[in-house]
Write a structure and sequence with these properties.
alpha/beta, Urease, subunit C, domain 1, TIM Barrel, 2 domains, 7-stranded parallel sheet, metal-binding, Metal-dep_hydrolase_composite, Metallo-dep_hydrolases, Metal_Hydrolase
Length: 291
Amino acid sequence: MDSPQRPPLAHVFRGTFVHSRPSEPMEILHGHLLGVDDSGTIVFLEQADQQDQLAKKWGFKLSDIRELSNHEFFMPGMVDTHIHAPQYSFAGTRVDLPLLQWLTTYTFPTEAKYTDSDFAEEVYTRVVVCTANVIYLFDNIPEILSFIFIFSPDKFGQRAFVGKVCMDMNDTVPQYKESTADSVKETERVQPVITPRFGPSCTEDLLSALGNIAQARDLHVQSHISENEEEIKLVENMFPAYQNYTDLYDKNKLLTSKTVMAHACYLSEEELKLFSLRGAAISHCPSSNFS
């Protein structure tokens, strides 16, 4: 009987590999071979003394092996679970104000500049080149800019979960908000991450509509929660019918096993239990939380 046809290899590397396992926080593998097939899947990672057997099994020649130098090594790509592409232009600066004042003074005016497609493409390309291999991305997308960013990851072999930021309440910068209908319509065009900006920027109608989209299409969800105490009080005043901030998302079908919520600095024990029950995740963002 003929052996099953194996997919052709696109790459074979020899060198040092570093990764983590549950039983070992850092494992260093010296003198190993790694093979990658045409689909980008790693099909083997074995000791280099298995080279002849692997070459016979996978049909590669010794001349196909790319050797790393002594100072080079492979490691798994980083996954950034929370990044705002439009804010990358001032990353590491403008940290002198609390959240709500920071949004109105710096963030909203900067994000409004992204109607300039040249400016947007330049910043978004830097995001893709300089950040992680896989990103959960918050973006503000007036039509054409969505495509500029969505296709940028493909140029560099990066994977991205791109979410259109939804915000139908923003009286501080009136020109930088959208109607509930437009927000829902634009969200339906961009997949796969449903992205309400945060509780205070969305009406209950918008949150409900976004939750329905997420449920109907089994999509990922990302947003912010409990970043500072002023924000929590604002949510309590705006949505008194809900038990707490987490309940607001949960009742609107936005807290699921595919949800990533940023910050979560002040969640109660009750809220943490609900996160656990739903299987939702938290992106802690330590540098932002401490600033």
